Amino acid sequence: MRGGGGLRTRVKTARGRTAQSTRWLERQLNDPYVKRAKAEGYRSRAAYKLIELDERFDFLKGAKRIVDLGMAPGGWSQVVRRTVPGSAVAGIDLLPVDPLDGVEILQLDFMADDAPDRLMAALGGAPDIVLSDMAANTVGHPQTDALRTMALVEAASDFAITVLKPGGAFVAKVFAGGADSTLVALLKKNFATVKHAKPPSSRKGSVEWFVVAQGFKGRNKRGPEA
């Protein structure tokens, strides 16, 4: 079968493989971003979401310290280290992440009481950027899934507002419709600009969007200084 200007790989439903998993595998095999990630040495296609967001909003330039929340398998941290090679990065995820040069990795639940302090200790100073690609494991109920993910986004935003350096940025994945009005109001109070975006590499059928808050005003900031 020909599609998209080239040969499309078809996957036969094998014994023990569901139709859903077959569709997922076929989509992966035919995804140009998956192929590009393999060719360019990125651990996941998600790397291009951050690349495209940075191309549009230019938040990585000059950053010295970056926090990567929900980092597994490490594609966003790879982008940061390639874009600003001298930067220090501290990442956290429940899942194990293979080592990355210049990245301090914590296998830990970000919602754990000691997680923020451990992240800051690993980073060694106030971050210029807090990135969050966190999303709750889905249960198949759209409203529930959205609420659970928004709880993570709200926790990430509270963390960012607490620890960011003045002028810093917060970038987070949210569900379709963007961040809710309460969160947007909080971000607008603390950042000069707040925008929503869906980068080209985000699949059209995906409900994910991203909120990009820049120009942290520094009010009510706590945490170690640079």
List keywords for this structure.
Rossmann fold; about 20% strand; alpha/beta; 2 domains; disordered C terminus; globular; transferase; SAM-dependent_MTases_sf; disordered N terminus; 7 helices
How are the SSEs ordered, and which strands pair?
Elements: E1 2-3, E2 6-7, H1 19-30, H2 32-40, H3 47-57, E3 65-69, H4 75-83, E4 88-93, E5 103-107, H5 115-123, E6 129-132, H6 142-163, E7 169-175, H7 181-190, E8 191-197, E9 208-216
Parallel strand pairs: 3-4, 3-6, 4-5, 6-7
Antiparallel strand pairs: 1-2, 7-9, 8-9
GO molecular function: rRNA (uridine-2'-O-)-methyltransferase activity
Family: Belongs to the class I-like SAM-binding methyltransferase superfamily. RNA methyltransferase RlmE family.
Catalytic activity: uridine(2552) in 23S rRNA + S-adenosyl-L-methionine = 2'-O-methyluridine(2552) in 23S rRNA + S-adenosyl-L-homocysteine + H(+)
Task: Give an account of the 3D structure.
The chain folds into two domains: 11-39, no CATH class; 44-216, Rossmann fold (3-Layer(aba) Sandwich), CATH 3.40.50.150. It contains seven helices and nine strands. The chain has helices spanning 19-30, 32-40, 47-57, 75-83, 115-123, 142-163, 181-190, and strands at 2-3, 6-7, 65-69, 88-93, 103-107, 129-132, 169-175, 191-197, 208-216. The strands form two sheets. Strands 5-4-3-6-7-9-8 form a seven-stranded mixed sheet, with helices on both faces. A two-stranded antiparallel ribbon has the order 1-2. 37% of the residues are buried. Mean pLDDT is 84; it is low at 1-7 and 221-226. The active site is at residue 173.
